[in-house]
Amino acid sequence: xxxxxxxxxxxxxxxxxxxxxxxxxxxxxxxxxxxxxxxxxxxxxxxxxxxxxxxxxxxxxxxxxxxxxxxxxxxxxxxxxxxxxxxxxxxxxxxxxxxxxxxxxxxxxxxxxxxx
Length: 116
Hints:
Elements (H helix, E strand, L loop, with lengths): L2 E5 L2 E3 L5 E8 L7 E7 L6 E7 L5 E3 L7 E5 L5 E6 L8 E9 L2 E4 L3 E5 L2
Parallel strand pairs: 2-11
Antiparallel strand pairs: 1-3, 3-8, 4-5, 4-9, 5-6, 7-8, 9-10, 9-11
């Protein structure tokens, strides 16, 4: 059974940074696209960034581009999302997701709170 786990969230001041991690069991990331989404209170879940694990190619939302970086661990079954230049609007629960066998799997999410 596929199981995704996010970690690394927390509270940070505006302008700060965090690194989120997404690990998996039941699937190896090698042949999959891993994506990060976020959901802020009262708002719809929105795409943040994605990576094609095998090639390392990445893609970002407009709000994430230039501030966030998605990358993979060189040897472990893990994907990271570095959040930089954080602002209050980045406050949300961040989720990683992967499609496996035609089904989307989601982690439980990790909370990121940006406040002064």
